């Protein structure tokens, strides 16, 4: 059996999912960013303390439909930026928690910054480091290798990227 490096493979999958999503975000308007396809959709709303995403803990079952704005927060801040919390890398986006952006341009900029920082951090681990356990800051996932986090991040990009693409299609064809 031939041993092959895993890091290039997992990063290639991440890159494919990221580039597919980023291409689908071209031309995103503020109206489309905040468009609520159904009543009761979770989105980003103006509040006294700035723009905040809708959130309940625990999450309702079934989960509500979410807007593109909410999904970009989830990917950029809640996932990719937060995945770097146990690293030495500074948080690539200025917002934290439920805070997010009320317009598309800064949301896209932060998503792109988070995606690039996450990828660079994983690439910097190298082939040996990608197999190291994530550590105690990761709780029940602490014994999992960093490679598992790259696979999970790729799944998040593909899953929510497809949802965003569908929302864009529905927005374009709405009555």
UniProtKB/TrEMBL annotation:
Among InterPro entries, the record links this protein to: DinB-like, DinB/YfiT-like
- Residue span(s) of domain DinB-like: 15-164
What single Pfam family name could you report for this chain, choosing any that match?
Answer: DinB_2
Q: Which SUPFAM superfamilies match?
A: DinB/YfiT-like putative metalloenzymes
Q: What is the name attached to this protein's record?
A: DinB family protein
């Amino acid at each position: 059996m031939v041993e092959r490096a895993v890091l290039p493979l997992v990063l290639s999958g991440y890159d494919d999912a990221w580039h597919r999503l980023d291409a689908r975000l071209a031309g995103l308007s503020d109206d489309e960013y905040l468009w609520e396809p159904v009543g009761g959709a979770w989105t980003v709303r103006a509040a006294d303390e700035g723009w905040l995403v809708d959130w309940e803990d625990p999450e309702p079952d079934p989960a509500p439909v979410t807007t593109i704005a909410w999904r970009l927060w989830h990917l950029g801040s809640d996932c990719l930026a937060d995945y770097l919390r146990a690293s030495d890398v500074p948080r690539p986006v200025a917002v934290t928690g439920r805070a997010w952006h009320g317009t598309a341009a800064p949301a896209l900029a932060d998503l792109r910054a988070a995606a690039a920082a996450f990828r660079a951090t994983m690439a910097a681990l190298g082939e040996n480091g990608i197999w190291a356990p994530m550590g105690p800051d990761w709780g029940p996932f602490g014994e999992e290798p960093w490679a598992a986090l790259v696979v999970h991040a790729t799944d998040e990009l593909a899953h929510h990227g497809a949802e965003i693409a569908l929302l864009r299609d529905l927005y374009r064809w709405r009555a």
